[in-house]
Amino acid sequence: MKTILITGCSSGFGLEAARYFLKQGWRVVATMRTPDADILPASPNLSVLQLDVTDAASIEAAIAAAGPIDVLVNNAGIGLLNALEGVSMANVRETFETNTFGTMAMTQAVLPQMRERRSGTIINVTSSVTLKPLHLLSVYTASKAAVNAFSSSLALELAPFNIKVRVIAPGRAPTTKFGENARARVGFNIPDAYTAIAGEVFANWQQDTLVTQSDEIAEALWRAATDPECPDFLPAGADAVALAAQI
């Protein structure tokens, strides 16, 4: 039985992925900053662990408790929507700490066991916003684009050890708590000079007919974990796939 460790399982993509892999008969290590086993189906193949990807001690404890890991999914992330002028450097650093450095830290923590076994897959969840410049997302895009570049170089580095590195780039998912959590964290203190741009952005979102559903990401993660022919960079979600096709 293979084991997958997924970060950020309290809601959205991570939660749906944990449910999906359980249904496929995998052992699932679902990690959250505040563990809540009740949101997942009871299963002898499920472990729910506390994990803060920005805390070295928390990472060490979770990896030790998880045991051997075949697939790591770096899904934990935080959003930031604002003009750069409206973002504090503390918010910038917080975004990179989770989205970028947290991904690197988790990957570094699992590599020794994968390298020794000469087997494993690391899947980094980034975003389709890295495919095309968009208003009010400069900081968030930078934090995810850095992971894309990190993943490409890491794939070369780890190929001799038979460790695969893949990126899933989801589109916008209005049904998840991602945007809600971003608003609660930093608010919408958009500077007055950018309110017209913000209004246009929000109006366009209202008209979007193509969005990403959580089950589409779960299916993409399954493909990345199990299909040897899966591309190393995979847009996922109707809007992400459509955007990638334009490039």
Task: Give the tags.
globular; alpha/beta; single chain; 247 residues; Rossmann fold
Report what the structure shows.
By secondary structure, this protein is of the alpha/beta class. It has one domain (3-245): 3-Layer(aba) Sandwich (Rossmann fold), CATH 3.40.50. 47% of the residues lie in helices and 15% in strands. The protein has helices spanning 12-23, 56-66, 89-117, 138-158, 178-186, 195-207, 214-226, 238-245; strands spanning 3-6, 27-32, 46-50, 71-74, 120-125, 163-170, 233-236. It has a seven-stranded parallel beta sheet, sandwiched between helices. Helix 1 (12-23) packs across helix 7 (214-226), helix 2 packs parallel to helix 3 (89-117) and helix 3 packs parallel to helix 4 (138-158). It is globular and about 55 Å long. It starts with a strand and ends with a helix.
